[in-house]
Aldo/keto reductase
Amino acid sequence: MVNYRYLGNSGLKVTEITYGNWVTHASQVDDTDAIATVHAALDAGITTFDTADTYANTAAEVVLGKAISGQRREGLEIFTKVYWPIGPMGPNDAGLSRKHIFDGINGSLQRLGVDYVDLYQAHRYDYETPIEETMQAFADVVRQGKALYIGVSEWTAEQLREGAALAKELKFQLVSNQPQYSALWRVIEEKVIPTSAELGISQIVWSPMAQGVLSGKYLPGQPVPEGSRATDEKSGAHFISRFLRDDVLTAVQKLKPIADEAGLSMPQLAIAWVLQNPNVASALVGASRPEQIASNVAASGVVLEPAIITAIDEALSPVAERDPEQTYTVSPKSRPGS
């Protein structure tokens, strides 16, 4: 089964493995298989589910809503997000304005078939909307009972600090940040994680397997496997391209004996590695088949020996990205679709 951790400085517990449906539901996987995979996650002990209105242009929320229909709502932690363009993508169909946040939460609740979400997240930082307006809107969403907690995704250390101060002033909690983080992508370690730990904010990390590269299935000097994420633009092929260099793929192959020594598969090692960081509350994983769930769940509760951590660092250090300046490049400087 899956262990639980507290989300930020709150009383909310979430599973160490969060089921995310970014590139699977209403995209890679038909609805029947998607629902079966969610049910497999529930059977394996996962109770925390993450989606976003923008995934498959709102359709992924609909699929998740169908999958959790009939489940005991109090036993689930449902997360969704707002920011990226949805619908016809008009001038107010994106960003973190008060209008879009309220349109967003109302639409998400309807699609998910729930009265509230446990965590509502700013999917990026909106440079075109005053942060005071954004945080006031989130405060009102919480006061109306439409979300219990507020989080963000890919905010810089400075943005987290300003957002947390406003949240405290408005008497609600900013409890989480959702950044990319893996043994190959460590840009949050220098600034974001120390700031978050100080502020009582947890990380819910996406792509702990570096878009599948840390699974070891991509081999140096070889074509990418047919049907893999690297061949599918809808599945984030542009995200994985940064890791498909021969020096990176050669370094990743050095993890195989390390995983064997730890008694783990390479995907399990990658997920367990991010969970060793005490500021990480949960690792986001997706699945296109129910049988993938059991393998991912086995990473929960794993304690990696210091020698294993050192060996991973030595194998990947020459190719791992650590530059904290990368955290400033994620949120668009102008609102998408406007």
